[in-house]
Amino acid sequence: MSDSQNAAAMRASQKVVGTPSEWSRKLSEIFVELEFEQLEQDKPVSSVMRSYPFGDTTFIRATTKGGRHVVKRTWDLIEKSQSNNFFIGYMLSGSAILTQNMHKATLSRADLAILDCTQEYRIEVPCSFDALWISVPRYRIEGRLASLSDITAHRVIGSSGLGRLASELVNAAFRECSKISAAEANRVTNSLLDILGISLAQQLAANQKSTSYCSSLLRRIQDYVENNLDDDSLTPAKIAAAHGVSARYVNKLFEKEGISTAKWLKMRRLERCRADLECTRKSDLSISQIAFDHGFGNISSFNRAFKDRYNVSPRAFRSPPANPIQMST
């Protein structure tokens, strides 16, 4: 790291000790609003937490010592919160049990799992552990990974297969984060999420027999949309007709994801455009061409939709300032 990066990292380093209420307050400042409960009173818990920027995501390393404890995200906290992101948990050492949406993931070294901060979750830690948490904006995951309620708190085994690829990519990105530009970091994040998405899709497919007809149909529809996004004639009615159901029924399926069919379609098209604007290999393509290539028939409506979703115009997004990300403290 450079001297300035070292200084920023020092400012972002925080020691967490004290009573459960002090723990809750500190965790809420570093992550999102959380409750802390110490389960072994004779084994006090302490932690050192360090934040590292990585494009529009943030790595937070939590090295924690002490006895068994629980961290909870409750509906009371969610209702008062403005946070709207996901966390990818990655175990460097030790173990933790993540629970959300009636799923439970027991993570050990090199394993990964995803949590949605707009839903209740629980993290139980049996003893000392070292974990890396990646705070990811919702737009990076929403739409890219099908059936969000299905993929949270699912263990991605980091010792083999696609899970190992994801694990090694997280480890490498964390080690080299100070040497990677914000634009490059965002492309690495895209690759990581794609690998995680494929791995989780495989797990869901393996459990296909135990899923309901509606969940299965929703995934087929999402796959169909993904394969036809660049067709500017693709509409909710056309999507429904291709699956022999009504547009109203398709909308009811998407309600499970908290979104309408039309909004999901636009969201996925915007994500394709955003990825192309980040891609150096496509720097010769105009913004208009990228928009047209991914189903937007009107450049003005595309510019408005892009700015509404990402809080920046396509032109400014493509040409960011030299240092767009500041170290969180």
TrEMBL record:
The UniProt entry's coiled-coil ranges are none
InterPro entries listed in its UniProt record:
AraC-bd_2, Homeodomain-like_sf, HTH_AraC, Tscrpt_reg_AraC-type_HTH
Instruction: Identify the residues that the record assigns to the HTH araC/xylS-type domain, covering every copy.
Output: 219-320
Record flagged with keyword Protein biosynthesis:
no
> Keyword set for this entry?
DNA-binding, Transcription, Transcription regulation
* Pfam families per record: AraC_binding_2, HTH_18
Q: Does the keyword Transcription apply?
A: yes
| Superkingdom of the organism of origin | Bacteria
Supply the PANTHER family for this chain.
Answer: ARAC-FAMILY TRANSCRIPTIONAL REGULATOR (PTHR43280), TRANSCRIPTIONAL REGULATORY PROTEIN (PTHR43280:SF31)
Q: What is this protein called?
A: Helix-turn-helix domain-containing protein
Q: Which organism is it from?
A: Novosphingobium album (ex Hu et al. 2023)
